[in-house]
Structures
1.
Amino acid sequence: MSTAPERKYWIFALRIAGDFGATIAVPVVLLANLGNYLDTRWGTRPWLLIGGFALAATISAVLIARKAKKFGKEFQEL
């Protein structure tokens, strides 16, 4: 059975995993769908889709770096 401090670390780890997962998935899904829609509308297939993926990767990387710093500070306080 888990002790209270150990449980606190597990919950923190699951929170990080969920937050990072959403931070990666949401921009990819939104920008890929937008790129695909615009490619279909303007006949530029697949360039805007690729651009959407590239932009999503950049946005996700910046957000992950910021959140990692925040979570690092929070981990030190546990």
Note: The two ends are 20 Å apart (CA to CA).
2.
Amino acid sequence: MITFALQNKEEKAFLKFQKEHIKCKYQDAIGGKFAVTFILTGVGGVIVVKCQSCNKEENITDFDAW
């Protein structure tokens, strides 16, 4: 089993992104308003969050944790 988790800085960045996009209208009946993508690399994992409503993305990776 593979488990993905956000570090403290990444969680704070996600909550900030979520707060900035809370007013974006989202009308899909399936899924969620925010998508989180984990990309595994040879040196660490990259984390990208996306607002499914306005399609803006932000890399919230804590590169200090690598």
Note: The first strand starts at residue 34 and ends at 40.
3.
Amino acid sequence: MLRCLFFHGPTWDGDIPSKAGRGELCELGLAHHEFGWAWLTRDGIDFSLTVMLLGEEKEKWQRQRRNTANG
């Protein structure tokens, strides 16, 4: 769930992999949920970058998406 919100940004409830996981992130203060949308808080972003080390992984994922879109 953390990876989903970090990679995709604000995400509609119908598109998230786990509502329970979203709830846990919210309880920990790592995400916020309102009006059917969930997104990471600043603490969630910091955790994603410093503990989970997702920054480079996201950059690689974005490069692959750009290269695929550009054919």
Note: Residues 2-69 form one domain.
4.
Amino acid sequence: MKQDLMELGVSENVRTIDSWQGREKEFMIFSAVRSNDRGKIGFLENYRRINVALTRAQHGLIIIGNANTLSTN
């Protein structure tokens, strides 16, 4: 995926959630693609991290993920 973004010229903005603390962008794509039978979402169980992930976009946010896994928490 990062290679595809590099071809589009946006790779410098590919970061982990923690590195977006204190930053904003007009539009963001948030990838939460963890998927498992136990419904564990890993580091997103920390409400501070999910807060950062959901509040950094100023005008638009696209979330990509497994709805079944994300809805368990």
Note: The chain has a mean pLDDT of 77.
